[in-house]
Write a structure and sequence with these properties.
Layout (H helix, E strand, L loop, with lengths): L2 E4 L3 E5 L3 E5 L4 E5 L5 E8 L7 H9 L9 E5 L2 E10 L2 E10 L2 E9 L1 H16 L2 E2 L4
Antiparallel strand pairs: 1-2, 2-10, 3-4, 4-5, 5-9, 6-7, 7-8, 8-9
Length: 134
C-alpha cells in the first residue's frame, strides 16, 4: 500500500485501486466500477478507555438478533467482528478499540463483491493505527 489516509483520530493504508471519500459522518473507500463500500467512522471517550462491553453495546443494535460476534486483534486494535446477509447484501462489521478510541468499520455489498474485496479490506484493517491527539 503506497497511500495512507489520516483522519484526526486514526490512519489507515489504502490498497491499490481504492478511492477515498471523506465527509463529516464517515470515510468511504470504494473500488472504481465495483459495487460495495468499506466505511470507517470513530468515536472517543473523554476520560476513560473503550472496553469490549462498550463495543458490544454499540454492536448489539447494528446486527440482527442471534448474530455471533468474534473477538479480533487488528493492527493496533482489539475488538469484535460480525458478518451477516440481509436484503441489502453481505455485511462485515468491525468494532475496534484502543485506549479511548472506538473505530467502527463496515464492508457491505453484493456477497460476491464483498468476498472478492475481502482480502484488500483485511490488509487495510491490519494497517489501522490511532493518531496521537492532544
Amino acid at each position: 500500500m503506497n497511500r495512507r489516509f489520516e483522519s484526526d483520530w486514526w490512519a489507515i493504508g489504502i490498497a491499490d485501486g481504492w478511492d477515498v471519500n471523506d465527509d463529516e459522518s464517515c470515510t468511504t473507500l470504494t473500488r472504481e466500477n465495483e459495487e460495495g463500500a468499506f466505511q470507517i467512522s470513530a468515536a472517543r471517550k473523554d476520560a476513560d478507555v473503550v472496553t469490549e462491553e462498550d463495543a458490544l453495546e454499540f454492536a448489539s443494535d447494528a446486527v440482527p438478533d442471534g448474530t455471533q460476534f468474534e473477538r479480533v486483534s487488528v493492527g493496533a486494535f482489539e475488538g469484535i467482528t460480525a458478518g451477516f446477509r440481509d436484503d441489502r447484501g453481505q455485511w462485515m462489521m468491525h468494532w475496534l478499540f484502543t485506549g479511548p478510541l472506538l473505530v467502527y468499520a463496515t464492508h457491505v455489498g453484493p456477497p460476491e463483491i464483498v468476498e472478492a474485496q475481502s482480502a484488500d479490506v483485511r490488509r487495510m484493517l491490519e494497517t489501522l493505527i490511532p493518531m496521537e491527539t492532544t
